[in-house]
Amino acid sequence: MIRISTKGRYGTRLMLQLALNYGKGPILLKDISKNEAISLGYLEHLIPPLKSAGLIKSIRGARGGYFLSMKPSEIKLKEIIQALEGSLILAECISTPAACNRINFCSTRALWEELSKKMSDILGGVTLQDLVEKNKNQKTENLVYNI
After folding, report:
1. How many CB atoms lie under 10 A from the CB of residue 15?
2. Could you read off the pLDDT of 59-96 as tens digits, one per residue?
3. Which CATH class is domain 6-141?
4. CB under 8 Å, gap of 24 or more: what pairs does 106-109 form?
5. Which of 9, 60, 66, 126 ranks highest by number of CB atoms within 10 Å?
6. Cross-strand pairs, 57
7. Residue of 71, 81, 86, 88 lying closest to 13 (CA atoms)
8. What residue ranges do the domains of the chain occupy?
9. At what angle do helices 40-52 and 29-36 cross, to 10 degrees?
10. pTM of the entire structure?
11. Do 55 and 83 touch, CB atoms closer than 8 A?
């Protein structure tokens, strides 16, 4: 089964929380842990690759915490998933043709290449700001008004 791991899913939720708080100052991981029901230890495990990718920054001290390194509209899901999961390429032969001795006559390589490209294009077309907007819309759709 091909799927995004817990790292990718939880990391996206972490980044969405930072996006929802963008411009309000740093947010503590313990607050994200509580809001998203993700263990603090697991969140701490996600921070280094996101920092290394330049997607988040941190401030130490009493008013410290984590925040996005750029606007939510400038961060694409593709960048988050690649930082946490690695390459989005579904088969090694696409990025490293020498890895397969069937490269010249493989009937499925083009399919894996096309699927990899489509997945990359979709994730590259969605920003954190898009998720913020969806989050706002979901909350208003679930409201019930009684008069």
Report:
1. 26
2. 998 888 999 999 999 999 999 999 999 988 888 888 88
3. mainly alpha
4. none
5. 66
6. 67
7. 81
8. 6-141
9. 120
10. 0.87
11. yes
